[in-house]
């Protein structure tokens, strides 16, 4: 399977976006004299960085079809898995504690 090698531009963009994500999270949760405005800016920065990171790490245009465990979607042979049923007689008074 071929892997896509990230260029130095993509690595730097991911790093800068990650720093913006952390900064937005910290700014959105901070207490300051400019409370609602600064928190709103931090929220917008956090959401924007989250969307960018989501697009970078989970591209929707990926055409790779990877089957890690192709056999796990098959119906298992239950006769081989289940043990044979034993014919046991249950003593009803003993089971009820009488």
Please, could you describe this protein's structure?
The protein is mainly alpha-helical. The protein is 54% helix and 0% strand. The protein has 4 helices and no strands. The chain has helices at residues 8-28, 35-57, 78-81, 92-96. Helix 1 packs antiparallel against helix 2. The radius of gyration is 29 Å and the shape is elongated. The protein starts with 7 loop residues before the first helix and ends with a helix.
Keywords:
98 residues; mainly alpha; elongated
Strand content: under 5%
Shape: elongated
Q: Which parts are unreliable, with pLDDT below 50 for 5 consecutive residues or more?
A: none
Helix content: 40-55%
Our count of helices gives: 4
Distance between the termini: 67 Å
Q: Please tell me how large the radius of gyration is.
A: 29 Å
**Largest sheet descriptor:** none
Name the helix and strand elements from N-terminus to C-terminus, one letter apiece: HHHH
Strand count: 0
Q: Average the pLDDT over all residues and give the rounded result.
A: 76
Q: Would you tell me the structural class of the helices and strands?
A: mainly alpha
